[in-house]
Design goal:
297 residues
């Protein structure tokens, strides 16, 4: 049984189409289709079947695709043991990072990896919580977040390491009528103009919690992803918002105040495919993330 055939079937299961597999693996669709035919011939089973204009895995193909991660993980453990024997981690690690969490984690991690010669390729992404899991197909580590201590939604079956809980506060203009209070209650915020995040992003859960607590619908004037842009609008008096405590500057026009009676705080995770989590270089970067998170907390 050729491991490459198992990994090809897993790619098809994860990416959903021959064209997507071809684009991700730098092959032509015809080359991928040919390799699927070779795999079917050598394994003596029908592995894919027509579905609309594309192909889908048969039960046999799905069984083999599900086995691929276990096989790949065993190979990665063997490679990690070999690198351990030879002395030091090696290779390049690709990491997709939620920018607002990477802001307080990445500087220390980069200093760590430079000291041992690991290459770290960083990609900033800001997606809805359910979309983080799909990023593991193209990256060794995905820095994601959730509003609960459970791993981000959709990451079942993946390796997920909890790094840190970061408090989420209410951001107010410095001259706001509530800025002098030590903490805020939901009832005090229902008549404010809000600068929110897109639906499905974790910070939106805080606004939903305020609505449930008060029975009122909040007035969300803008829905934006970029925290620095949100800070600028809050500081200029265009509304209030939910922002992370560790990385929001409070020496200018914005102040942060904790919110009572509604669960807040986001949990940051390192999410990996189980086979890639076995790579020694990936383990080293993951451990560096844990150390950086401990220092930030």
């Amino acid at each position: 049984m050729d491991v490459r055939h198992l990994l090809l079937l897993r790619d098809l299961a994860e990416r959903g189409s021959v064209h997507a597999v071809a684009a991700a693996t730098h092959r032509t669709p015809s080359a991928v289709s040919q390799q699927l035919k070779v795999a079917a011939r050598e394994l003596g089973a029908v592995l894919v079947e027509p579905s609309g204009r594309g192909l889908r895995l048969t039960d046999a193909g799905r069984l083999l695709a599900d086995s691929a991660t276990d096989v790949a993980a065993a190979l990665e453990r063997a490679e990690a043991a070999w690198q351990e024997f030879r002395g030091s981690p090696a290779g390049t690690v690709s990491m997709a990072m939620l920018p607002s969490a990477a802001t307080f984690l990445l500087p220390d991690v980069l200093a760590d990896v430079e000291s041992v010669g690991i290459g770290l390729r960083c990609h900033d992404v800001d997606v809805a919580e359910l979309e983080f899991a799909a990023l593991v197909a193209d990256h060794d580590i995905v820095l994601a977040h959730s509003l609960t201590a459970d791993a981000p939604a959709g990451t079942g079956g993946l390796a997920a390491v909890h790094l840190v809980r970061e408090p989420l506060d209410i951001a107010l203009p410095r001259g706001h009528r509530l800025a002098g209070q030590a903490a805020l209650r939901p009832e005090e915020l229902v008549d404010e103009d809000w600068i929110g995040v897109p639906a499905g992003f974790p910070f939106d859960t805080v606004l939903q919690g305020i609505e449930r607590r008060t029975g009122r619908t909040l007035r969300v004037c803008q829905r934006l992803k970029d925290n620095r842009l949100i800070e600028a609008l809050v500081g200029a008096g265009h509304g209030v918002a939910v922002l992370p405590r560790f990385t929001t500057p409070t020496d200018g026009d914005v102040v942060l105040r904790p919110l009572r009676e509604v669960p807040t705080g986001r949990h940051v995770f390192a999410v990996m495919r189980r086979d890639r989590a076995e790579r020694r270089a990936v383990r080293w970067v993951r451990e560096s993330l844990v150390r950086a998170a401990d220092r930030a907390a």
